[in-house]
Amino acid sequence: MRALLYKDFTSAKVSYLLGFLIMLIIGVYAVSRQAYIIIPLLFLYMPIIMNAISFGVDAQVDFPVFVFTSPISRQMYVVSKYIFSIVLAILSFLSCLIVFRLENYDIGLSLIIAALCFGLPIIFSSIQIPFFFKYGVEKGKIIMVAAYFLLFFLSSFLGEYKESVIIKIQEVSQSQPYLIFALIIGFTLVILCLSIRAGIQILNKKEF
Fold it and tell me: pLDDT of 96-141, one tens digit each?
């Protein structure tokens, strides 16, 4: 697993580092403007970019043809494609929780919104990655464009109606905030597991 992750990073480190540099610049700008909510949103975009880069590099060098002649299993290869998305989802969760607590929102509300920030990148990746396995990089770009469009819409909507959205979520979550938090996390993990299983099944049917 570590070898696969190391390969993913080193094979496209310039693209990854450029992406993180852009994130850092936007993050610094957000802090200077006290628009802290932008920081968790950045972690929603990055998995989509990193997934496309990873699969694009693999396609260029026919990496699956080589890797499956080694002891690395198809299952391990599939799971490795989700690791960056999971790490970025955790960072999105933590940054969102910190931002909302700094803004003195209730802990229950903060946890629910942080759970949504955790769930979105994983759910997008859970749709995107099996699509890449099934149809390849070129057709997989359709999902990437659709995800960007949806995230851009969500970001614009939240930017304009942030307080209204927060009030609505607070109204819904007043009775059982921790239960709602657990349900969101549980639903996200179920989607992730189903996606990994689908990716393994797709890859097992392919010949290289």
Answer: 888 888 877 788 888 888 998 899 889 988 988 888 888 777 666 6
DSSP 121-168: HHHHHHHHHHHHHHHHHHHHHHHHHHHHHHHHHHHHHHHHHHHHHHHH
**Cβ pair 197, 127 in contact under 8 A:** no
> Is the Cβ–Cβ distance between 133 and 199 less than 8 Å?
yes
- Residues 195 and 126 sit within 8 Å (Cβ to Cβ): yes
> In sequence order, which residues have a C-beta less than 8 Å from that of residue 187 and are 6 or more positions away?
119
Indicate the pTM of the whole model: 0.78
Alpha-carbon gap, residue 166 to 65, rounded angstroms: 48
3-state SS of 79-94 is HHHHHHHHHHHHHHHH
- Between CA 176 and CA 96 the distance in angstroms is 20
The CA-atom distances, in angstroms, between 93 and each of 70, 96, 115, 123, 126 are: 36, 5, 6, 14, 17
Over residues 22-75, the pLDDT tens digits come to: 777 767 766 676 666 777 777 877 887 777 777 777 667 666 666 666 667 778
